[in-house]
Amino acid sequence: MSRESWKTEHVLVLVKAAPNWSTKYKKYEICTAGINPEEGTWRRLFPFSEKLMLEKDVKVWDVIELETEKATDDPRFESRKINGESIKTVDRVESQKARREVIKRFVEGSLETALKQKRSLALIEPLIDDFKIDKGTREPLQFTMNGTPFRRNPYGDIRLVYRWRCRERCRFCLGKSHTSQCFDWGANWLYRKLLKTDDEKNAMIKVRNKLQYEMKYDNNTWFIMGTHRQRPWKKWMIVGLLWMKKQEPSNIAPLANFL
């Protein structure tokens, strides 16, 4: 594509998934997604490296301005290729009231609408049935050509798995629950953080308390669901978690108020 195909737009960042090594870009990439507030549509942004994320200091609920173009190697409608150098933070949705207004605007009762519209991103308020931590073997260290140690999937030895249902049952949770792995960066990082001060058993108890009991009973919790790149887009993952202490929701406000 020519440079004329690049478009400057705003994206309210709602998803930062755990980093994974990209064999294509030879760096740690982060699944980053959010909403274009002017258009009211989802965006999946790539390539968004861990290094770039840290350099630009992009956080969930930041409104960023950046250059994008329609992806040619990713068939999902929401996907946009980005010019990383163009990224700058221009605003932030700070108050819980404003955040609830955004969520109220975009939350869906089930995955059914996204499936019918052939979308690959959706914001769902789930009914959480269960949560488990699958503990595996940590991937051994590998080394780059210059001797730098790395793991292709640094969070791969832990799988955070929710069993949940749509509030308005979709075709996949009629009479049963969804089983979805959670790739939210903060949720996966929590276990690593707790291991620095606790033994493994206590760390897992605290993670379960935070991600199951608090999410289910103390907080309003929302899942941002995303699909794999390959068709058919039937395997949904939790790519982002949003939560706030339970309270009465506020009225919806125009998205333009957030910029």
For the CA atoms, what is the radius of gyration? 18 Å
Instruction: Trace the largest sheet across and list its strands.
Output: 1-4-5-7-6
Helix content: 10-25%
Report the mean per-residue pLDDT as an integer. Answer: 89
Q: Please, how many helices?
A: 5
Task: Characterize the biggest β-sheet.
Answer: 5 strands, mixed, barrel
How many structural domains?
A: 2
**Quick one: how many beta strands?**
16
SSE series: EEEEEHEEHEHEEEEEEHHEE
Detail the poorly predicted runs.
Answer: none
Shape: globular
Strand portion: 35-45%
Distance between the terminal alpha carbons, to the nearest Å?
A: 29 Å
Assign the structural class, choosing from mainly alpha, mainly beta, alpha/beta, alpha+beta, or little secondary structure: alpha+beta
Descriptive notes:
- By secondary structure, this protein is of the alpha+beta class.
- It folds into two domains: 90 residues, OB fold (Dihydrolipoamide Acetyltransferase, E2P) (Beta Barrel); 142 residues, no CATH class.
- Helix content is 21%, strand content 39%.
- A hairpin with a 5-residue loop joins strand 11 and strand 12.
- Helix 4 packs antiparallel against helix 5.
- The chain is globular.
